[in-house]
Amino acid sequence: SIFSDIPVEKGCPFGRRLPCDIYWHGVSFHDNEIFSGQVNKFPGMTEMVRKITLSRAVRTMQDLFPEEYNFYPRSWILPEEFPLFVAEVRMMKESDPAWKPAFIVKPDGGCQGDGIYLIKDPSDIRLAGNLQSRPAVVQEYICKPLLIDKLKFDIRLYVLLKSLEPLEIYIAKDGLSRFCTEPYQEPTLKNLHQVFMHLTNYSLNIHSGNFIHSDSVNTGSKRTFSSILYRLSSRGVDIKKVWSDIISLVIKTIVALTPELKVYYQSDIPTGKPGPTCFQILGFDILLMKNLKPMLLEVNANPSMRIEHEQELSPGVFENVPSPVDEEVKVAVIRDTLRLMDPYKKKKKDNLFPDIYMDSKQRFPSISVIPLSPGTITLYYRSQPSEPASEKKEQLSEGGSTDKLEHDSSKSPEASLPSPCLKQVFPKYAKQFNYLRLVERVAALFIRFLGVKGTMRLGPTGFRTFVRNCKLSNSNFSMATVDILYIDITRRWNSVGMDHKESGMCLQAFVEAFFCLAQKRCKSLPLHEQVATLIDFCEYQLATLDEKRLVCSRGIMERRPALITYQPDGLHLAPAHHAPLLNRMAAANKLAGYRSHRL
């Protein structure tokens, strides 16, 4: 494990009574109850990156922006969409008789390749077991991957989601390339079951007799991604374009996940109550097609951080052996994550990273590792003082080039160190992607009308209040129709077999209802413009309502005797009623461009 290399302080053999700066959970946010500091898991992340939930989130974005989200294979959710899967495949085969597809079935909660299999026809699914007890996603199989040494491979990239609000994303500049162990052939009925040919999962291929452990990062069945890029570059491939496409894929995927993550977040850490802040390292599994287009395979909430592998010394006797490839990539990811999350450095805007020493025993700052429960450790992180650092500006497409920290070598010990491996991609490129964040704004409306803090479901009263406050009902859309819409959509979403403890309308159901309302109001526009128009309209109405409430509240306060007449800090505050007025004016300006489309 990486954490075996971290210097552990022995001062707390029985645990700490005081809160820690960083809690490092093994599985999820709920591994332990914590009320302060920072935790390396977001609430809801494990649920959001499951095969079905991820597919739904990406599909919503595909409905809005089909061209922007074409990096995810065509998917169907089983068992609920099995009839649709059969019908669509039949229709596509009839329209193109030359189309010879293959499909890959992935259990919803599967990991490490467990339960994955390939099929050539939808009828083969019925032979594979009971889908009711184990839901799955079936995807169109990518038949033409990029090959290296005639082998199929995928890419594991490490992504740090540093913050949800504001959204902040970092990508590691190097990753792992994991190879199949049999030469690739396009799927046929004869080779469908050859997992070492078609599935790149390390946990599967390590059992192949052809698996090659190597001390070099450039050879073997697991290599660094940078070694693959170097090899492609020697062939004349535009590496900057490859990196640009990968960065775009990562940002767009997290944009798709963010709305519901915010719902989970407000449920577990309600606004105004004490609680930790969160960050998380995610593992993105990406496949490069033959034309170098990156395709998202899946996202892992708990990517392995092991830096060794098991070697069989004799039958049944295994030993952990260091893996130089894993160590080179993963140690840098953990080290720089701790640098970025250092709570003391957050107070210094220009200083992103604390001092790191060249001694291998001091690759990490001083950390106390405190066991709390199985699979969980607490990191008590003590930062070291350091000189301010600034990061060199980069272009989106610059790819695998490394940043250089600008230090005076005579003052900083970091001058001779490798540059940080984590590259900020958001908000750095926010201007290029902010237009995609429509569902996030819909989620903000959903959260506003939840009513009870900590809940994740919207009741019928909350939905009616949303419609009424946003002035969405009229003679053609009565409140009775609103109730019917709520009941129909909520019932459909609650019947898909998902395990929910609460009753009411989930975020996905609210988004569907919102899309229906948008289509009713702006019939002549593309869906994303319909949704944007309705969002602007709702935000304008709510800003107006907030202003009225604040004016009324201010009037009441003015009639009361002043309790505080002196401000010792000398702050000069603008009148409070100006703020909502400015918000309303901004919303009105947004809305002006769409007035011709309103009913």
TrEMBL record:
Query: Gene Ontology terms, cellular component aspect?
Result: ciliary basal body
Domain of life, source organism: Eukaryota
- Can you supply a Gene Ontology BP term from the record? microtubule severing
Query: What are the alphabetically sorted keywords of the record?
Result: ATP-binding, Ligase, Nucleotide-binding
Q: Where is the composition biased (Basic and acidic residues)?
A: 389-411
> What Gene3D superfamilies does UniProt report for this protein, alphabetically?
ATP-grasp fold, B domain
Q: Which residues form a coiled coil?
A: none
User: Would I find ATP-binding among this entry's keywords?
Assistant: yes
* Molecular function, one GO term: tubulin binding
Key word Membrane present: no
Q: Which Pfam families match?
A: TTL
Region called Disordered, residue ranges: 384-417
What name appears for this protein in its UniProt entry?
Answer: Tubulin tyrosine ligase like 11
Organism this protein belongs to? Crocodylus porosus
* Gene assigned in the entry: TTLL11
